[in-house]
């Protein structure tokens, strides 16, 4: 009895034990449920029911992301921003809060213009992101005169329009590199002493300043005469009237490659921070005038971008009374030229992106043995490519895509053509000139202001000259749209150029400030 009684608990004890066991089971069930919730959610993500639209939207990025969000640079230094996120790419536009402090060079690249702080904004399909940029001063010295060979680096400026920032007067080899140069007149002036100067200019950032004298024009980046060798590569220039002006020389080496030029400006200053409606000397990115390059020359992989309505230039690359040779022509290839225009001419612009020119009279040797290959001309107010003088000139594989209209619907092109052959000076030395395998197309308004295609213009009489031919060109006219004008055709060309230089491994502009 006693033992049995010991084995049988009292009623109150039995009830408590049962309650404890139930509580334990509930607790275990709760733990098991909590453990299964993540697994259930994981199964939902792998193949179960989709989350609600609100939940899905909350996981998506709300707009583009800019990198970096802050940057510190110096005056004249360039800086490249990147964008990522939804719709980042060709549809994005870049802007600066103050162009006088920080200038946009396009595609997310900016240049410091003066000390201060500015905001960079990138907008992709209506959504925006911002970055802040602080621009500090460069330590600069006054003009320098180089009279002996060597390698020179520095930051030089000239506030006198009559005094170049850098003057080179020697035949000894000179390398000017990793420098920042600005001035109100010519930036680099080169002239040999006897046998011809030998100058290499690389990784230089140059800025043309307002001369602040009414009627005075900004100077050239490079003004070179009497030289035997001239190499200009990986330089960045802004606001100069000419990029490279080379004349009266018979060089053994002439190479102008991998440079960047933005907003060339050939209008005269009004002395008050603005411009007069005059152009003392019509500017060019490159003009070769009276150059006899029997060993050939190269102008290649340069990027020149004008802002239509805000900057002024004439022919972008002009080969004037200059010659290569039959076996070694002057090769102008793989350049990107955008926005050639001048606000001085609102209805008729006389510039051409790529041209052979020169009268060949008064003892001058006519332009000859020039090859224009695989260049891109985008959004130009004038002719894309013109052979207006010379002989033995060929052009092949060039792309001219110009829609003739700004984003706000205003025409900037007025009847110019993508390609032109015309013996403008009626010279007897006009023969063996050909334009083949061009692509793209040009548009402008007709007399009623309606979109009109202007692809090819030739002077009928000149087509009878020996060896003159325009053939095999394929103008598909991507600017033509059922609703009027397809400006996306120009954007596609910008993307084409970006991909082209990436695939070729080419690097454009000054690199030393970004290292």
List the helices and strands and how they pair.
Blueprint: H1 2-7, H2 11-47, H3 53-58, E1 65-67, E2 70-74, E3 78-80, E4 82-84, E5 92-96, E6 102-106, E7 109-112, E8 116-124, E9 127-136, E10 144-146, E11 150-152, E12 155-158, E13 166-168, E14 173-183, E15 188-191, E16 197-208, E17 220-225, E18 227-233, E19 236-238, E20 242-249, E21 253-257, E22 260-262, E23 286-291, E24 297-300, E25 303-305, E26 317-320, E27 330-333, E28 336-338, E29 352-357, E30 368-373, E31 376-378, E32 383-387, E33 391-396, E34 399-402, E35 419-421, E36 431-436, E37 439-445, E38 451-453, E39 456-458, E40 469-471, E41 480-481, E42 484-485, H4 488-504
Parallel strand pairs: 2-9, 10-13, 11-14, 12-14, 13-15, 14-16, 15-17, 16-18, 16-19, 17-20, 18-21, 19-22, 20-23, 21-24, 22-25, 23-26, 24-27, 25-28, 26-29, 27-30, 28-31, 29-32, 30-33, 31-34, 32-35, 33-36, 34-37, 35-39, 36-40
Antiparallel strand pairs: 1-4, 3-7, 5-8, 6-7, 8-9, 37-38, 41-42
């Amino acid at each position: 009895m006693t033992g049995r009684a010991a084995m049988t608990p009292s009623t109150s004890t039995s009830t408590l034990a049962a309650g404890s066991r139930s509580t334990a089971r509930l607790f275990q069930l709760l733990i098991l449920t909590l453990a299964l919730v993540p697994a259930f959610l994981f199964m939902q993500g792998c193949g179960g029911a989709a989350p609600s639209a609100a939940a899905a939207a909350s996981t998506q990025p709300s707009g583009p992301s800019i990198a970096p969000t802050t940057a510190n640079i110096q005056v004249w230094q360039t800086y490249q921003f990147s964008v990522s996120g939804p719709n980042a790419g060709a549809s994005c536009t870049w802007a600066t809060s103050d162009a006088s402090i920080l200038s946009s060079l396009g595609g997310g690249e900016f240049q410091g213009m003066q000390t201060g702080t500015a905001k960079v904004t990138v907008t992709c399909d209506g959504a925006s992101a911002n970055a802040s940029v602080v621009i500090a001063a460069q330590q600069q010295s006054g003009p320098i005169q180089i009279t002996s060979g060597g390698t020179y680096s520095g930051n030089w400026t000239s506030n006198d329009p009559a005094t170049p920032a850098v003057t080179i007067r020697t035949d000894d080899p000179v390398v000017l590199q990793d420098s920042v140069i600005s001035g109100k007149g010519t930036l680099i002036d080169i002239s040999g002493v006897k046998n011809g100067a030998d100058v290499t200019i690389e990784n230089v950032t140059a800025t043309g300043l307002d001369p602040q004298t009414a009627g005075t024009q900004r100077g050239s980046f490079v003004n070179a005469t009497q030289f035997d060798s001239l190499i200009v590569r990986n330089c960045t220039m802004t606001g100069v009237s000419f990029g490279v002006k080379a004349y009266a020389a018979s060089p053994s080496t002439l190479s102008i490659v991998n440079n960047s030029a933005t907003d060339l400006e050939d209008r005269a200053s009004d002395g008050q921070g603005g411009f007069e409606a005059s152009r003392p000397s019509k500017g060019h990115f490159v003009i070769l005038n009276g150059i006899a390059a029997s060993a050939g020359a190269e102008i290649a992989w340069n990027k020149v971008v004008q802002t239509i309505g805000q900057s002024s230039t004439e022919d972008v690359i002009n080969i004037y009374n200059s010659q290569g040779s039959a076996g070694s022509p002057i090769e102008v290839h793989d350049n990107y030229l955008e926005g050639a225009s001048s606000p001085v001419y609102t209805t008729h612009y006389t510039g051409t992106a790529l041209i052979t020119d020169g009268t060949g009279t008064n003892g001058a040797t006519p332009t000859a043995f020039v090859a224009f290959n695989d260049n891109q001309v985008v959004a130009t107010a004038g002719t894309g490519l013109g052979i207006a003088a010379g002989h033995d000139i060929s052009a092949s594989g060039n792309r001219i895509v110009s829609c003739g209209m700004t984003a706000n619907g205003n025409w900037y092109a007025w009847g110019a053509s993508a390609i032109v052959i015309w013996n403008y000076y009626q010279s007897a030395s006009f023969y063996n000139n050909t334009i083949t395998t061009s692509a793209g197309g040009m548009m402008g308004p007709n007399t009623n202001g309606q979109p009109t295609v202007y692809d090819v213009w030739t002077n009928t009489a000149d087509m009878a000259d020996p060896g003159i031919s325009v053939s095999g060109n394929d103008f598909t006219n991507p600017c033509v749209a059922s609703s009027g004008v397809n400006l996306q055709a120009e954007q596609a060309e910008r993307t084409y150029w970006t991909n082209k230089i990436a695939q070729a491994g080419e690097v454009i502009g000054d690199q030393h400030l970004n290292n």
